[in-house]
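Input/output pair, single chain:
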Amino acid sequence: MKRLSIILLAVLAISSCKKDSDIVDVKTPLNIPTSYSSESFSTNAATELSVAGQLGSLTTYMKTAQDASVKLVKDSLDFYFGANATPSLKAVTGTYYTKLIETNWFNEMVASSQNAYDPANGATATIGGVYESRLLNAKAKENIQEIEKGLYTAALFNHFVSVSNGTLNDAAIDKMLAVIGGNPTFPNSYTVATSPDKYVLKYVCRRDKNDGNGFYSGVKNGFLKLKAAVAAGDDYKEEQTAAVTQIRTNVEKGMAATTINYCYAALSKLSATSPTDADKAGAMHDLGEAVGFIHGLKAVPANARIITDAQVDEVLAFLKAPNTSKGDMYTFITMSAINLPSLTSAQNKLKTIYNFSATEMEDFKNNWMSTQGR
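Output:
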């Protein structure tokens, strides 16, 4: 009995000598839901839905000038961008992009509207105009697309990042989902009758094969993890941060993949034996979208994206649409043999930045939502 007491005392002594750092605090695993539930989505995200709607209104007005009989008014452009709501679309746009829109691109569009244009004259043109129902600047860049698609990231995704950096709760998560064009049903489709994907997620959806491994699935799973981590409390801050990063990464990769997709589309049209004027205008539209999707990322805080400012500028140079000038995109039409390889260089640059595989690069040729009839 005496020997047993000595052993027990020894065990107690050893136990009492353990440091706090030796004690492992095992957290309960997250209970991740299989669907996104929100009883007050529209109410929580009213501001974000309004901002996204303002982008739609601005785009609708800009596109009126695709009719050569319409003259745009600078005051009207400014109104749709920054004066018709509180908060305005302008208020959530990164200042880098705001300056380009208000100082450069709106003025170019006003000057180009109600004018005819032929990219064959791009070398000497001082103003742009309408070419096959596309409003192009003097050097054949489609400002409408650099603004609209650029604001998907420079404004909507930028606002997502701002909300994610604040207090995270169910209302904040609803805001983050709404502003990138999502909703609690996560349909992975923009053609469904009710609650389709819009804006950013519309294009992420296009790049997703619906096999559970794509960018759209990554966004959805990130939101579900974020809901679970927020519900679990402050001990799960690390998991909250990881979920936000997962969403951000998949959105950004979806935008980069879409830039690659539109380069493929332009290459297909312009490398044809005898491209028509409609083909050429369509290619300029494709490239306008490509420019917008990647350029807008430069207005998102650098610590919230993979691509650097310098890398964005490199891609824009390959697309012949540097932010410092009107560009010279007309040369993709007038000197195709010399300049079309530059589009492949843009694709390869993005492939390297995002570590896309050869298989992924082939997949990016497709609109998977359309191909699969979702």
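Residues 37-372 form one domain. The longest helix spans residues 237-270.
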